[in-house]
């Protein structure tokens, strides 16, 4: 399926595709009432209440005034309908704001100011700096002579760095006056949600260019909701509009999460319903028997000899109505009410404000607070979640000399500073590579201060460090870099950039020194991707030692290397590179191969060590939550050594004598299988010992384990209280969550980046850290917090209180309904089993609303224990996790426990027991 | 994926594009208040031995005198209960009491005599007590029309009175319904030592019923005129608000055994005097085996004779004292420090988990 977009053709594509009107609304004015009612009635409880309310309209059987059921029913429906309507109205307002934003669009060859919602597919849209992109556009022109522009894609993928976008080669060099009149066709796929892929072709019509097909990639597009930065203007052709944009397609209403307590309430409701039916049948039969044997003797009741056909049903139906209050009608409304209060308490909590950025904690999902108190597994990301994700250059090893080992900070090491100022060539080259071997864009603010926009935090750290060593990267102008070294400007021309891929694990740039015309290859990358390519004869042992030493300290290491290229060598390679760059098939693989041809015989300059500091309070938080019986799994994309080091430093795993690490590795199915069996065996043996055992698995082995040994791995997952999963992909993270969920564990996933979003959405509770990797995780999450350490308070204080309060409230709701219902049932035995209500309608309503609902709602402000006590004895959380087992054995919570254990039959038994206890 | 379930792209982008603004919005602090920080003052009494023991002693000391006083008051009430349903049926009808009560020919008058055991100070209340009579049966209790009873204008409001709502020729019965229809119709005449005693009907009905629930302009109409006669007839020249027996009867009893006030004797009855009651035994309780009893009782400050309250108070008070003493003994013999953490479940159970 393809879509053909004709550029600037007002007639052709006008009606074929939807316009650019964004709509997130669920209802319209007309369908609101029927649709909303339908949705509300699709819930079992509401159907039940409606049935009861309808039965009450029959005066022969109703024990009370129908208003006593209709009133609350209508009230409850009105409340939820109002809430829905309000939410929908707000969505409508924000849609309207976006739809009515004014943009410049070319219509009939003239630039016009129109509303964003009127953009059609094929229109040419003009945007200026800092404007938001109204729909998905294919670039055809920018203010930049090289055809480059910068966009910020934070709204799309949460990454806050600037991304470079270029115009397609076919449009290069077209005068901006002519862009109005451009004609052509873009062949592109039908709309999809993949924001990293856009495989399309562009063909311009004469007179612009000979009829050549020009391939388009995602690099040639700017997508809806991105922002244009650092570029004066761009213009592009609208290819996807309205709800068919990449963003619109990926928008979806996530499935509402159900808490354990909710599920329990549902089950309890079902059990009570069954019990109620039993009561109705028993009492109905008893009532009919009494009527036929006793009531006929009671002359004053004056029963007719022959009744209507439905006579047998009358008494059972009366009892059904009498017992209908067993299921409390108000429970949903009161729970919704208190749950939003819990969420507010989280929002308001002054002790969960991140003072550095003054971000507050926020509960996006107001419905699942009590689940926080029942968490059993926490799956956490590493970078940015446990660590600060603020990379700081700490140590380096240049030409075999270690800097920063004494002070722990190379930038303060006098020897290094001396070496830079004295112009030691090794050091100068090292610092130069640090400064220019990257894709960082320096941005000069009005005051003259330079800030860097970097795609990776590591690059940012290196450039900053280079700047501290007087090698300041000041300007990047198309292909020319300017370095300010000791007050003199050095210019380099970037000839090629050999980009970083996770397979190559390194990146390089080819630069030309503008002063002497020499060409250099500058590389940086992981040790295993650089050291093997060292030129023959160079001693690499010190570098390997340095790498080992640094990673022992939990530092992230990078090797820097360089090589001078001969003019003709470069020219030969450059041709190959250009060719590979323009292939359509297997481009990435071809490029890697070509890069490989240049990246050899490197002269290794040194090793950098970057520290990603642990956040404050991480070890304490993990320890406290551990004591509360919560198991931790760390899922990281980082490599095994670093992950283990970080895990050690934050109490995640214990060092050798006390703890034990079991590695699962292997490249083939058999190897992984054997490894798994071995680990499982050890795990079974050591469960009885007081030893912290953790298993470590990497992404590759995990892939195989999940595919072929799912059962074994699941068993391992249940046994293990701690696990480290390294080099895992976002989808594997989500799969791990799924495995734990399938074993009926309550899981909490916490992360900060776009790669954690899937796991966050998959888990019972998703917590996002509003950190440096953007807000994407925080926005997808149910709760967003500023720092990892707030998790302790979130779970132990808010989660626990919420759970206790909800448990109390729901138990109480059932208790009070059952109580009054049992009074009615008992009364029926002394009123001739005729279904008389002991209470009149007003009393019943007053009991339900004024005596037992509103006052009890105040109990949600109760604290059973002080915050301090809970923090000191996190073990208290066991009670919550176990679903309040052992807590009040002679109180309705017992029912919950039994439902929890899935023994509905014994639950009914206990209801009877409860009945006896009440009287 | 949009977590907000679809805030528009524009809204989402605004938040992200300008993190500073987002932060500012987030940090829109609500003013610090003890409510928002969940620091409202609260008290959480800890049940220390001292507290528990002293409150039990307190309860015991308060409850036992109350119980004794109630019991004493109840003892002073003089109550005569006399069952007459069987004895008032002549011996020849004993095998078919139903025929006796349903027949119009039989003589229903019955004279009973009994001794007054102790002096009864006036007023002496006269009750009739019915057993196994379901005034709370749903069919019965619903069969009345409060509107009709209240005002003459709603005379025809008899829809809820089925099956005693209208006569055969469709004119409304006032008062309608099974309750009124089955009005109790035994009567009692009293004499002591052959002097007749007057029975006062003053103030035997609730004042509010007389003033608000039963209209002074509503007169009985078509009452007991159908083929089936239920209970007593009403004098159709007296308004319902003055028909005190009806008003008492229409306050339906919640339990199948109940007493209703019949009247008052306004003179003292001396001990050992002989009381003669002339009973018109009209009311049919024989078909369902119900008992009829005549009750004469004086009152005290706790009302009629009722030992339960006193016994309950004394039992509770005694139990409290007993608990107080046993707790005290345990506390003295085997004290343990308050807040001993070794008793915490996770300290007793090294595995840590319950399940």
Description:
The complex is a heterodimer of chains A (919) and B (355). Chain A is α+β, with helices and mostly antiparallel strands and 919 residues long. Helix content of chain A is 41%, strand content 21%. In chain A, helix 8 packs antiparallel against helix 24 (790-829), helix 10 (425-436) crosses helix 11 (457-468) and helix 29 packs antiparallel against helix 30 (904-918). The termini of chain A are far apart. In chain A, 46% of the residues are buried. In chain B, helix 3 (49-76) runs antiparallel to helix 10 (307-333). A 5-stranded antiparallel sheet of chain B has the order 1-9-3-7-6. A 4-stranded antiparallel sheet of chain B has the order 2-8-4-5, with no helix packed on it. Classes of the chains: A alpha+beta (919), B alpha+beta (355). Chains A and B meet through helix 3, helix 5 and helix 8 of A and helix 1, helix 2 and helix 5 of B.
In a nutshell, what does this entry contain?
Chain A is of the alpha+beta class. Helices cover 41% and strands 21% of the residues of chain A.
What is the secondary structure topology, with strand pairs?
The complex is a heterodimer of chains A (919) and B (355).
Chain A: E1 2-7, H1 32-41, H2 44-55, H3 67-99, E2 102-107, E3 110-115, E4 124-128, E5 136-142, E6 148-152, H4 154-157, E7 162-166, E8 184-189, E9 200-204, E10 213-216, E11 221-222, E12 227-229, E13 233-240, H5 246-250, H6 260-295, H7 311-323, H8 331-348, E14 362-363, E15 377-380, E16 387-398, E17 401-403, H9 414-422, H10 425-436, E18 441-444, E19 450-453, H11 457-468, E20 471-477, E21 480-485, E22 488-498, E23 506-513, E24 519-525, H12 527-530, H13 541-552, E25 556-565, H14 567-582, H15 587-598, E26 603-614, H16 618-627, E27 631-635, H17 640-649, E28 659-664, H18 669-686, E29 692-698, H19 699-708, H20 710-719, E30 722-726, H21 730-742, E31 747-751, H22 757-762, E32 765-769, H23 776-780, E33 783-785, H24 790-829, H25 841-851, H26 854-857, H27 867-872, H28 877-881, H29 893-900, H30 904-918
Parallel strand pairs in A: 15-27, 15-31, 27-30, 28-29, 29-30, 31-32, 32-33
Antiparallel strand pairs in A: 1-8, 2-3, 2-4, 4-13, 5-11, 5-13, 6-7, 6-12, 8-9, 9-10, 14-33, 16-17, 16-26, 18-19, 20-21, 21-22, 22-23, 23-24, 24-25, 25-26
Chain B: H1 9-17, H2 19-26, H3 49-76, E1 79-83, H4 97-102, E2 109-115, E3 124-130, H5 138-141, H6 146-150, H7 178-181, E4 187-192, E5 195-197, E6 199-200, H8 207-213, H9 244-250, E7 258-265, E8 274-280, E9 292-297, H10 307-333, H11 345-348
Antiparallel strand pairs in B: 1-9, 2-8, 3-7, 3-9, 4-5, 4-8, 6-7
Family (chain B): Belongs to the CDC50/LEM3 family.
Biased composition (Low complexity) (chain B): 1-20
Region (Disordered) (chain B): 1-34, 144-165
């Amino acid at each position: 399926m393809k879509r053909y977009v004709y550029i600037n053709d007002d007639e052709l594509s006008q009606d074929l595709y939807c316009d650019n009107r964004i709509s997130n609304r669920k209802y319209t004015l007309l369908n609101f009432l029927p649709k909303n009612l339908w949705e509300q009635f699709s819930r079992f409880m509401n159907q039940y209440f409606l049935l009861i309310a309808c039965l009450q309209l029959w005066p022969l059987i109703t024990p009370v005034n129908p208003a006593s059921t209709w009133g609350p029913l209508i009230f409850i429906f009105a409340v939820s309908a109002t809430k829905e309507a309000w939410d929908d109205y707000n969505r409508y307002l924000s849609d309207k704001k976006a739809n009515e934003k004014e943009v410049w669009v070319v219509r009939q060859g003239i630039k016009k100011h129109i509303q964003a919602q009127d953009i059609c597919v094929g229109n040419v849209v003009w945007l200026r700096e800092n404007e938001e992109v109204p729909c998905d556009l294919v670039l055809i022109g920018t203010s930049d002579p090289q055809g480059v522009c910068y966009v910020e894609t934070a709204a799309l993928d949460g990454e806050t760095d600037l991304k470079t976008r270029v115009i397609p080669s076919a449009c290069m060099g077209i005068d901006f006056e002519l862009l109005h009149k451009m004609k052509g066709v873009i062949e592109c796929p039908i709309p999809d949600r993949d924001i990293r892929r856009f495989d399309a072709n562009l063909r311009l019509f004469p007179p612009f260019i000979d009829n050549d097909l020009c391939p388009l990639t995602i690099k040639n597009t700017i997508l809806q909701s991105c922002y244009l930065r650092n570029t004066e203007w761009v213009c592009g052709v609208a290819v996807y509009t309205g709800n068919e944009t990449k963003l619109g397609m990926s928008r979806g209403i996530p499935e509402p999460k159900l808490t354990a307590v909710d599920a329990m309430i549902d089950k309890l409701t079902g059990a009570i319903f069954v019990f109620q039916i039993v009561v109705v049948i028993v009492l109905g039969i008893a009532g009919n028997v009494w009527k036929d044997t006793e009531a006929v003797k009671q002359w004053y009741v004056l029963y007719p000899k022959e009744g209507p056909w439905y006579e047998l049903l009358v008494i059972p139906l009366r009892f059904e109505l009498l017992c209908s209050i067993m299921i409390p009608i108000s429970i949903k409304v009161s729970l919704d009410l208190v749950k939003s209060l819990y969420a507010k308490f989280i929002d308001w909590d002054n002790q969960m404000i991140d003072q550095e950025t003054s971000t507050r904690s926020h509960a996006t999902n107001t419905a699942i607070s009590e689940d926080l108190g029942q968490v059993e597994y926490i799956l956490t990301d590493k970078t940015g979640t446990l660590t600060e994700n603020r990379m700081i250059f700490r140590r380096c090893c240049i030409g075999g000399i270690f800097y920063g080992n004494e002070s722990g900070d190379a930038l303060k090491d006098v020897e290094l500073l001396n070496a830079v100022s004295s112009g030691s060539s090794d050091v100068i080259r090292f610092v130069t590579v640090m400064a220019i071997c990257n894709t960082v864009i320096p941005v000069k603010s009005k005051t003259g201060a330079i800030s860097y926009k970097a795609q990776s935090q590591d690059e940012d750290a290196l450039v900053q460090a280079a700047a501290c060593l007087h090698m300041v990267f000041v300007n990047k102008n198309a292909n020319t870099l300017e370095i300010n070294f000791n007050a003199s400007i050095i210019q380099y021309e970037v000839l090629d950039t050999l980009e970083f891929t996770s397979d190559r694990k390194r990146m390089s740039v080819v630069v030309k020194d503008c002063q002497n015309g020499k060409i250099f290859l500058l590389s940086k990358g992981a040790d295993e991707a650089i050291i093997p390519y060292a030129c023959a004869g160079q001693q690499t042992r010190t570098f390997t030692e340095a790498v080992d030493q640094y990673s022992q300290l939990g530092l992230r290491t990078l090797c820097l290397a360089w090589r001078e290229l001969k003019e003709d060598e470069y020219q030969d390679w450059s041709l190959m590179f250009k060719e590979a760059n323009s292939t359509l098939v297997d481009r990435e693989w071809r490029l890697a191969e070509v890069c490989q041809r240049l990246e050899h015989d490197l002269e290794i300059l040194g090793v950098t060590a970057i520290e990603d500091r642990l956040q404050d309070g991480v070890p304490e938080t993990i320890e406290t939550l551990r004591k509360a019986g919560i198991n931790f799994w760390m899922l990281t994309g980082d490599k095994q050594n670093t992950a283990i080091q970080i895990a050690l430093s934050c109490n995640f795993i214990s060092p050798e004598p006390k703890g034990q690490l079991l590695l699962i590795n292997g490249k083939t199915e058999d190897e992984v299988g054997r490894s798994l069996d071995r680990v499982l065996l050890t795990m079974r043996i050591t469960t009885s010992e007081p030893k912290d055992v953790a298993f470590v698995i990497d992404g590759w082995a995990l892939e195989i384990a999940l595919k072929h040994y799912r059962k074994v791995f699941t068993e391992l997952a249940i046994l293990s209280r701690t696990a480290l999963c390294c080099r895992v992909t976002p989808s594997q993270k989500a799969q791990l969550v799924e495995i734990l969920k399938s074993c009926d564990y309550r899981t909490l996933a916490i992360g900060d980046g776009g790669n954690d979003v899937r796991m966050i959405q998959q888990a019972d509770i998703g917590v996002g850290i509003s950190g440096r990797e953007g807000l994407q995780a925080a926005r997808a999450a149910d709760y967003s917090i500023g720092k990892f350490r707030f998790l302790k308070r979130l779970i132990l204080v808010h989660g626990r209180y919420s759970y206790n309060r909800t448990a109390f409230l729901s138990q109480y709701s059932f208790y009070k309904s059952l109580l009054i219902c049992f009074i009615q049932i008992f009364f029926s035995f002394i009123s001739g089993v005729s279904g008389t209500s002991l209470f009149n309608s007003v009393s019943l309503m007053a009991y339900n609303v004024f005596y037992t609902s509103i006052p009890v709602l105040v109990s949600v402000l109760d604290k059973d224990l002080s915050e301090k006590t809970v923090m000191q004895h996190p073990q208290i959380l066991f009670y919550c996790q176990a679903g309040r087992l052992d807590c009040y054995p002679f109180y309705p919570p017992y029912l919950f426990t039994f439902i929890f254990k899935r023994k509905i039959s014994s639950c009914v038994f206990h209801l009877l027991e409860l009945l006896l206890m009440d009287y | 994926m949009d977590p907000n379930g679809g805030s528009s792209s524009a809204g989402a982008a605004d938040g992200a594009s300008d993190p500073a603004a987002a932060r500012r919005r987030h940090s829109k602090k609500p003013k610090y208040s003890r409510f928002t920080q969940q620091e409202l003052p609260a008290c959480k009494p800890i049940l220390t031995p001292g507290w528990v023991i002293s409150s039990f002693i307190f309860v015991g000391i308060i409850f036992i005198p109350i119980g004794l006083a109630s019991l004493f008051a109840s003892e002073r009430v003089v109550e005569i209960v006399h069952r007459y349903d069987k004895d008032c049926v002549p011996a020849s009808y004993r095998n078919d009491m139903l025929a006796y009560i349903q027949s119009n020919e039989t003589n229903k008058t019955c004279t009973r005599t009994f001794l007054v055991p102790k002096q009864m100070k006036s007023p002496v209340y006269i009750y009739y007590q019915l057993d196994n009579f379901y005034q709370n049966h749903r069919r019965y209790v619903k069969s009345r029309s409060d509107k009709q009873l209240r005002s003459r204008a709603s005379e025809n409001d008899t829809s809820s009175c089925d099956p005693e709502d209208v006569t055969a020729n469709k004119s409304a019965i006032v008062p309608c319904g099974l309750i009124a229809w089955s009005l109790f119709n035994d009567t009692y005449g009293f004499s002591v030592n052959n002097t007749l005693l007057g029975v006062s009907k003053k103030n035997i009905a609730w004042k509010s019923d007389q003033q608000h629930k039963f209209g002074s302009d509503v007169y009985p109409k078509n009452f007991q005129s159908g083929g089936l006669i239920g209970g007593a007839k009403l004098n159709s020249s007296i308004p319902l608000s003055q028909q005190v027996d009806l008003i008492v009867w229409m306050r339906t009893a919640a339990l199948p055994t109940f007493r209703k006030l019949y009247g008052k004797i306004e003179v003292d009855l001396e001990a050992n005097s002989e009381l003669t009651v002339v009973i018109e035994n009209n009311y049919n309780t024989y078909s369902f085996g119900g008992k009829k009893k005549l009750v004469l009782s004086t009152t005290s400050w706790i009302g009629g004779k009722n030992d339960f309250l006193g016994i309950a108070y004394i039992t509770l008070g005694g139990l409290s004292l007993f608990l107080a003493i046993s707790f005290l003994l345990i506390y003295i013999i085997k004290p343990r420090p308050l807040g001993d953490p070794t008793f915490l479940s996770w300290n007793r159970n090294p595995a840590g988990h319950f399940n």
